[in-house]
Amino acid sequence: MKLGVNVDHIATVREARKTNEPDPVAAAVLAELGGADSIVVHLREDRRHIQDRDLKILRQTVNTRVNLEMAMSEEIAKIALAVKPDQVTFVPEKREEVTTEGGLNIIKNKKKVADFTNRFKKNKIPVSVFIDPDKDQLQAAKLAKVDMVELHTGDYANAPTPEQQQNEYLKLAEAAITARNMRVRVAAGHGLTYRNVLTITKILEIEELNIGHSIIARATMVGIERAVREMKGLINRK
Ligand code: PXP
C-alpha cells in the first residue's frame, strides 16, 4: 500500500509566525527519504498554510508525485493547470472549517465535477475526488469520469464507539470494492493515525493512504528531545 504524506501542517507552523521555517519543501524531501510515495498539499483559497510559492517549488523538487488537493475554484484551477501537479484531488472547502469536513457531494455538483475533471484530464493530469464511502457518490464520480476516488476515512477515525467504528469500516470496505468493480482506482484518508490505520490496510482495494496530521504531530514529538538538546548544547558551549 502506498503512502502519500500531507505536509500542510509544516506550513501551518511556519505561517503561525509568517517566517520562512519550517519549510514544507524541506519536509517533503525528508518525507521522500522516509519512503513517502507522494507528497500531498492543499492550496486553500485562504492560503492558511501552503502558499503558491510552496506548490511551485514542490513541483520542481518532489521526486515522487505531487498530489494537489484543491477546491473546484477558478482561481485555484488556473494555478494548478500552470503548475501541472502529477494528480489533483478535488475536495470541498469551507472558509470557517478547521480541516476538510467531509466528502465532496458529487451528486449535487455533477456538472461542475465533470467539467473540472475534463479540463484536467485534457491537460493529462489525473483526477481524484474526495468522497464519503457511499454507492451513489461513487456512481456519480464514475459518470464524471474521474480516474480515482479518495474515500473519506474521517467518520471511521472519529467514531465514538467500537461498534460505530466497525460500521464505518464496513462502509469503507464495501465502497472500495464497488469502486474497483467500476474500474475506478481507490485511495483513502483523513484522520488516520498510528492507532487506527492498521485495520484500513486490510482493505486490499485501497492502493494509497494519504496521511498528514498524525505524521506531522508525531514528527514534532520524536524530534523535540534532539532539538532541545541541540539548543542547550549551543547556549552552554564553552
Ligand atoms: N485527504 C484529504 C482529501 C484531506 O483533505 C486531508 C486533510 O488535508 C487528508 C487526506 C489528510 O488528513 P489528516 O491530516 O487528518 O491525515
**What is the CATH superfamily?**
Aldolase class I
- At CATH level 2, the architecture is Alpha-Beta Barrel
Q: What gross morphology would you assign?
A: globular
Distinct ligands: pyridoxine-5'-phosphate
Total of domains: 1
Unreliable spans: none
Helix content: 40-55%
Number of helices: 10
Across the major sheet, the strand order is 1-2-3-4-5-6-7-8
Strand and helix map with partners:
Elements: E1 2-6, H1 8-17, H2 24-33, E2 38-42, H3 52-61, E3 66-70, H4 74-83, E4 87-90, H5 110-122, E5 127-131, H6 135-143, E6 148-152, H7 154-157, H8 162-181, E7 185-189, H9 197-200, E8 208-211, H10 213-235
Parallel strand pairs: 1-2, 1-8, 2-3, 3-4, 4-5, 5-6, 6-7, 7-8
Helix pairs in contact: 2-3
The protein binds pyridoxine-5'-phosphate.
Residues 6, 8, 42, 69, 89, 91, 99-100, 130, 150, 189-192, 210-214 line the site of pyridoxine-5'-phosphate.
